[in-house]
Amino acid sequence: MRHTRVPVPVETGAPGGRTNAHLFGDPAVLVDPAAPDPALDDAVDGRAVDHLVLTHTHPDHAGGVARYAARTGATVWARRGRVDRFVAATGVEPDRTVAGGESIRPSVTALETPGHAPDHLAFETPAGVACGDLAVAEGSVAVAAPEGEMRSYLVSLRRLRARAPDRLHPGHGPPIDDPRATLDRLLAH
Length: 189
Fold this sequence. Notes:
Blueprint: E1 3-9, E2 18-24, E3 28-31, H1 38-45, E4 49-53, H2 59-62, H3 65-72, E5 75-79, H4 83-90, E6 96-98, E7 103-105, E8 108-112, E9 121-125, E10 128-132, H5 150-163, E11 168-170, H6 179-188
Parallel strand pairs: 3-4, 4-5, 5-6, 10-11
Antiparallel strand pairs: 1-2, 2-3, 7-8, 8-9, 9-10
Helix pairs in contact: 5-6
């Protein structure tokens, strides 16, 4: 499966000042259009995009939803049970909803991964798992009150580890080519 990662500059406290937007497949599923950005414009203009999803609705992941929904005409998906939160974060009414275990398309399945945020999902694809803020290649993930919940976060790490993905595509930083070691490190931390 074709995959493109576009690190997008964001004005929030994102690690490194960038959030990764990901395009999976052809036509593509766009994951986490963080903010309007010329490089992301070029990436979505260069291929068809038929679905748009968020790993979670924190501002550094959701800031470009309105722009890229309009630009691509993609079906916009929100986390089932969290539509109000999605609309508040993006200003966009979703076309459809999804929950863990359901597919956006046959090759892209949502995974329940709360903890960092209550609405957090990851998306399993043949190119690896778009894991949002569940895991990072270096350092650790903030699981901060009032939304973060450490027990749920640890369960989500264990759940993803049990799936044994070949590669993780985090919301911040480079791809993770040794998911088991990274997930073990985060669990131990």
